[in-house]
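Q: Given only this backbone (241 positions), what sequence would you predict?
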């Protein structure tokens, strides 16, 4: 069970300009950096889908952010006119990044058997991971959604390649491999992140998730760690650990 059900999220991306913002004043739009708008999952409503679970959409690099809009080399021209055109476009940049849940699969796993060791004697992980038909169907609706949004915003599309999904691991939201559950045959941890087989071992990180969901994981990891440590303290007080 340990090492199995590695879950990530499937993502696509599109980059565009919003021409209505061309030439507006350059402002400091860095904010907290990166993402400023989040569109929560909506597909639990409305028509029945041809896939399970869902996705949310992150909007990154909107407006005049440091590092946003890697487009300058694609702008035609030379000299001062080229610089003016790059500056004119700068405040109008938008990126759309849907993130969707990948169904947990037993064969998506991390193993260390027979792998070489690193310089500290820790075995290197070997990762087997793939996405399936459900994720590709979901990605289709991600593209429909992104195209609809950009069309309604009268966007000039810079990069959008229908059918392409981000390479595995690019969502950087890894979960699973030590999943929680009530049944020790189907899970490594109980609902308090305590190992079924070793009762003084608690695993309080993203590996406890039975599935990745489409959401950013950190706040949930923190909430579960908090709950696990409350439980641990209680068990210590009672003398059961
Ligand atoms: C660039 C980036 C941006 C992200 N942005 C967001 C975001 O905006 N919102 C969000 O919710 N999530 C975000 N995430 C995901 C989030 O950071 C992770 O899901 C979360 O940190 C996972 O927590 P964890 O405790 O499971 O693992 P980690 O935070 O990776 O902790 C694992 C720890 O184990 C230590 N470790 C590893 N091997 C050993 C060893 N052999 N011995 C001792 N210690 C060891 C590591 O040093 C590390 O401190 C982002 C991730 C990345 C990479």
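A: Predicted residues:
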């Amino acid at each position: 069970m340990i090492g199995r059900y590695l879950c990530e999220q499937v993502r696509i991306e599109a980059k565009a300009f919003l021409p209505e913002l061309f030439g507006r004043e350059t402002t400091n739009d860095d904010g907290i950096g990166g993402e400023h708008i989040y569109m929560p999952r909506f597909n639990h409503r409305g028509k029945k889908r041809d896939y399970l679970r869902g996705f949310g959409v992150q909007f990154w690099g909107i407006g005049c952010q440091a590092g946003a809009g890697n487009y300058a080399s694609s702008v035609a021209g030379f000299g001062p006119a080229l610089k003016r055109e790059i500056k004119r476009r700068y405040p109008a940049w938008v990126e759309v990044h849907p993130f969707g849940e990948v169904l947990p699969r037993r064969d998506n796993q991390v193993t260390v058997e027979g792998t070489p060791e690193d310089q500290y004697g820790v075995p290197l992980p070997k990762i087997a991971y793939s996405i399936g038909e459900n994720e590709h169907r979901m990605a289709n609706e991600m593209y429909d959604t992104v195209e609809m949004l950009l069309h309604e915003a009268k966007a000039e599309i810079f990069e959008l390649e229908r059918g392409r999904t981000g390479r595995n691991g690019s969502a950087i939201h890894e979960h699973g491999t030590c999943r929680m559950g009530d049944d020790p045959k189907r899970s490594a941890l109980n609902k308090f992140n305590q190992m079924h087989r070793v009762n003084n071992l608690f695993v309080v990180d993203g590996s406890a998730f039975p599935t990745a969901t489409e959401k950013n994981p950190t706040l949930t990891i923190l909430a579960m760690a908090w709950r696990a440590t409350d439980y641990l303290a209680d068990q210590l007080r009672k003398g059961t650990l």
